[in-house]
Amino acid sequence: MNGKSIDQLAVGDRAEMACAVSAELVTGFVTLTGDRNPVHRDATFAASTTFGERIAPGMLSATLVAALLGSELPGPGCVYLSQTLKFLRPVKLGDTITARVEVVETVRDRNRARLRTECANGAGELVLVGEAWVMPPAAAQQRPAAGEAAPPLARAA
Q1: CA-to-CA distance for 78 and 140, rounded, in angstroms?
Q2: What's the CATH code, domain 6-21+56-135?
Q3: Contact at 8 Å (CB) between 64 and 19?
Q4: Tens of pLDDT, residues 52-79
């Protein structure tokens, strides 16, 4: 898909992507972000918590939403303006998280779009819900060539 301008967006447009949440992905994410919470890093500590095991940072799921907005809908050239988030369930190692976005409003005279955002686990349970405002590109933009590697957080293994 190419990046869509405001004139190409319509209420009801949707996109989704999935990502397998592995121990390696979580370790890389917490290292990159500097998140020192042991519930994400230390299996022994995590076993003593209400979760009983290591869990992924909630922001890892939110990052999938950001990747989806920037690469699929509206796509390349869009500017992320704001995001609300509500974390509903923990994301466990081994889960496959599916991020989804849907256009719910366009404000053409201001070049803005509002999208419903959500992430669900492999059982279909919502783990994150929210709403994003974006500024689509002024004109349709091309996505990088198919042979170009996607960043590790952008695609399921």
Answers
A1: 10
A2: 3.10.129.10
A3: yes
A4: 999 999 999 999 999 999 999 999 999 9
